[in-house]
Amino acid sequence: MKMFPEGFLWGGAIAANQCEGAWKEGGKGPSVADVAKFADPQSQKDLLDIHKLTDIDDEAIAKALATDDETYYPKRHGIDFYHHYKEDIRLLAGMGFKVFRLSIAWSRIFPHGDEETPNEEGLQFYDDVFDECLKYGMQPLVTMSHYEPPLYLVTKYNGWYNRKLIDFFTHYVDVITKRYQDKVKYWLTFNEIDSIIRHPFMTGGLIESRFDPEQFEEVEYQAMHHQFVASALAVKITHQNIPDAKVGCMLTKVTFYPYTCKPEDVLEEREKMREIYCYSDTQVFGEYPQYLLTKYHNKGYHIVMSEEDLKIMKENPVDFISFSYYSSNCVAKDTSGLDVTTGNTTMAIKNPYLPSSQWGWQIDPIGLRISLIDLYDRYHKPLFVVENGLGAIDTIDENGEIQDDYRIDYLSEHIKQMGYAIHDDGVELMGYTTWAPIDLVSNSSNQMSKRYGFIYVDVDDYGHGSYKRMKKKSYDWYKQVIEHNGDNLFED
C-alpha cells in the first residue's frame, strides 16, 4: 500500500544554537543562546518550571559575558557542528535524506544585528554547509531565526519589543536570500513563533525584569506583532529574491484534549487551542483573528499596529505551514487534584491513557494524525512536520552498540499516523524531518543527556567527551524507511 507520495521529503532537523558551537569563531557575535546556562534539573519538579529554565536578566547576562566558560553554557560548544559539518552531513546523507532542516545563526552573519555590512566569514560558512548538502542531493530547509536573536539587539534595543528590529531582520533576510538564492528553495521565518509567550527571552529577546510585571504580557504581544510584520516582509523579500522559493511559518503544535466531557473542560480546550492557532491564523490568513483582537480589547491592551503593517501582513501570507509535534496535553477548567506533567515548553494535565517519556512528555502518535487533520481542514495549505522525536537516555552496551528500540517504536508509530492522514484523510503533507537526527544540546534545560539522534555524539552534560560520532540501531532503521518511502512500515 502506497501511503506517502512520490517526492516526499524525508529528513531531519537541527538548530544552529544547539549544534554549531564555535561561539566566538568566524566573526560570530553572542546570541541569547550563548548566555543560556545549564540548568541541571534534578527532578520532575525542576523540569516543570519552564520559566526558570528559559528566563534571564541583565545581571545573569553580565555574568555570562564575563566568562568564556563552555561547561555551564553548553550551547557555546554544542556538538561542534561548525568543525564537524562535513562528517555530520555525510552521515545524514547515508540515511538517504532528501531534506535537511537547519538554521542560520543571525549573529554569525551580523554579529550585533544592526550592522549594514554582513560578516563574510559567516556567509561563507553557510555556503560551504549548503554546498555539502547539495553534493549529496539533500535540499536545505532553512530557518531564518531559531531561538537566537543577537544579544546586542536584546541589551541595546530591548529585543523584539523595539520596532527597529523589523528593519534589522529584513536586512538580514535580504542578504541571506540573495546570497543563497541558488542553493536554498525552502525557508521558514521564525521557529515556533508562538513560543514568545512561553519563553520571551529565548524567542523575543525580552528581558522581563526591564518591564512592569503588570504590563509584560502586553509587551510580549507587541513584540509578537513586530515579528508578524517581519515574517510577512521576509516572505515578500524571499519571493522577490528567489521567485520559485517556498516560505513557511513554524508553529509549536500543542494538541489539547478536554480532560472530561464536561462542557467546562471542552470550552477550556477550545480556548487553549485558540492560544495556539492565533499565531498560524495570522500568518496564513494574513490578518489577526477576531478572537485575538477581542482579547486585546477586553484586557485593555494597546498593541501599536499601523494600517501599513496590516497591509503587509495581508499581502504576504506564508506558502505552507510547518510545525513541531512531540506530545499531546489534557486541560480542565478545575485542575485541583490532577497530576501534572511536562511537554514541549509547556505543563499539562497527565493523560491516564498515554505512556510518558523519561522527561514526562506524553507519547501520543494518534495525536499527530489529529493535528494534521485539524491544520489541513483549517488552512487548506500544504503541511510539513519539521520536528518530531523522542528525547531519551541512550547507553552504549557491552558490544559498543546503542540499541534504541524505544526510539524506533516512537517514530514508527508517528510515521504510520502521518501515512493514515495522507491516505485516509486527504492531508497534503510535504515532508517529515525528525528532531534531531544527531544528538545535540536540548533546548530548555541545555542537557546533552536528553538525546534524540540516530547518531550518537560522545559529549556529556558538562561538555566532556571525545565528540566522536557513532550510529545507533535507529540509523539503519530510518535508512530503510526512507529507501522504501515509508511503505515498509505498513507491510503488516
From TrEMBL:
Q: What GO molecular function terms would the record report?
A: beta-glucosidase activity
The name this protein goes by in its record: 6-phospho-beta-glucosidase
- Do the record's keywords include Ligase? no
- Which InterPro entries is this protein grouped with? GH, GH_1_N_CS, Glyco_hydro_1, Glyco_hydro_1_AS
Instruction: List the active site.
Output: 387 (nucleophile)
Source organism of this protein record: Intestinibaculum porci
Alphabetized UniProt keyword annotations: Glycosidase, Hydrolase
One GO BP on record is: carbohydrate catabolic process
Under Pfam families, the record lists: Glyco_hydro_1 (PF00232)
The entry's family comment says: Belongs to the glycosyl hydrolase 1 family.
